[in-house]
Amino acid sequence: MTRFSDLGLSEPLLRAVESEGYETPTPVQLQSIPPLLAGKDVLGIAQTGTGKTAAFALPVLQAMTKERPQHKRRIRALVLSPTRELAAQIDERFGAYSTHLDVRHRVIFGGVKQGPQVRALQKGLDVLIATPGRLLDLIGQGYIDISHVEFFVLDEADRMLDMGFIRDIEKVLKLLPNKRQNLLFSATMPTTIASLASSFLRNAVTVDISPKEITVDRIEQHIMFTRKADKRRILVNIIENESVACGIVFTRTKHGANRLVKQLLQAGIESAAIHGNKSQGARTKALAGFKQGNIPILVATDIASRGIDVEGITHVFNYDLPNEPESYVHRIGRTARAGRSGVAYGFCDDSESGYLVGIQQLIGNEIPVIEDHQYHFENARPKPGQKPGKIKDPNAKKSSNSRRRSNNGRQGGRGQGGGGQSSQRRQSNGRNRGRASGGQGGRGSSGQRSGGQQGGSSQGRRNNRR
Q1: Residue 212 pLDDT class (50, 70, 90 cuts)
Q2: Sign of torsion, CA 141 143 149 151?
Q3: pLDDT tens digits, one per residue of 63-100
């Protein structure tokens, strides 16, 4: 059996991992640490929860202490993360692993005042963990210099692209020095990620920790077929009957998360939501309450859940089945950590059966079904030979047809007696053409203002996602 002491780590780092209770390295650590210590680039396919933070943090810290530059501290390692929670989690791990080292690290992200972050930067840092938006913002203000970075980590690359950060990543890459060591981690490897990896990784060692390796036997998985309207009732029943004191519920949307928290509170169950539209203060408070046991149920979206690494989670609820099968593996991996067991429930309505097909194809097993509950809905079960993917909601088609009929009716009403209205429109158009030279400038100005508003809205949405 391979131990951390067999990987070539320094004595201070070995003491740190021992105090954290680590004995044997996880597969991603076992496969990543040796090539990184040897100075090679690494391309890792692994989910959050596989131990990948230690897989890159330990080699980075060893590189930081191998030789200490005589000049003022400057950023020698940069870790780029898609969300605030994950960035904060990575920084926390750097703190634990560097207990016996003279290394300064700091996390920066948007949604909070930049003053404390700027003051920490001005004192000098060795390791910087950041989200893309705040990083580029402070670089633009002249507070951050990444031209001396020796070690660059791009974590959760697939989420980075999902959240629209590709251009930000490209800007960061242009500012980094050519001579550096690189590591890219991604839960999935679509062509977009493969193309990004090939643009900056050099002769990289590939570390592939497949989802099947992550879905451990300690997680007891169940699927329940139900109508969408009955999911809340099933969730409340399980939480109450199994006295769930530490569980995560995953929803597909931010609005759905907020609505579910209100419904749980009405049922007397304390809970909190965590997603991209919440302020950083609210997200930090919710996560702290959950970690401390004051809030037994955390309701989260996939993006916000990255970085939630809480020991003792006993239950994971897939309130909405994810449309990406890999996300299912990531979700249930929140439980059964550090040798513990855990339970994962999935609620499948008749529009999600295709998602279930995709999940079961990925993990290579059929998830056991619980049928003996009062809200069982047989029509939600996948049909024989059904292909993976979303099932169209028949009600959505009816609603769409109804809207079209309504629109057609309004248009028909406007068309009746059209001679007089058409004449009025022609007269109005004539007057408009007479004023054309004076009106174009106004329209152009208005168009610019509209474009600026749209751009600001887009930037605001991106900030929220950070």
Answers
A1: low
A2: negative
A3: 888 766 666 889 999 999 988 888 998 999 999 999 99
Using alpha carbons only, give the angle 192, 194, 197 rounded to the nearest 5 degrees: 110
Return the H-helix or E-strand segment holding 43. strand 42-45
- Token pair for residue 202? 């050099």
Q: Which domains does the chain have, with CATH numbers?
A: 4-209 (3.40.50.300), 213-394 (3.40.50.300)
3-state secondary structure string across 360-409: HHHHCCCCCECCCCCCCCHHHCCCCCCCCCCCCCHHHHHHHHHHHHHHHH
129 within 8 A of 105, measured Cβ to Cβ: yes
Q: 50: which 2 tokens?
A: 């596989």
For the cut 70, the answer to whether the pLDDT of residue 214 exceeds it is no
CA distance 60 to 343: 35
The average pLDDT across 241-261 equals 94
Identify the three-state secondary structure at position 371. coil
Tokens of 33: 């640490």
- d(CA 127, CA 103) in angstroms, rounded, equals 8
| Distance, CA of 361 to CA of 364 (rounded, Å) | 5
Tokens 């759905």 belong to which residue? 256
Selection from 20, 16, 22 nearest residue 3 by Cα: 22
Residue range 152-189, pLDDT digits in tens: 999 988 888 877 899 999 999 999 999 999 999 987 77
Q: In a 3-state reduction of DSSP, which class is residue 107? A: strand
Instruction: State the Cα–Cα distance between residues 321 and 317, nearest whole angstrom.
Output: 9
d(CA 285, CA 90): 18
Angstrom distance (rounded) from CA 323 to CA 403 = 27
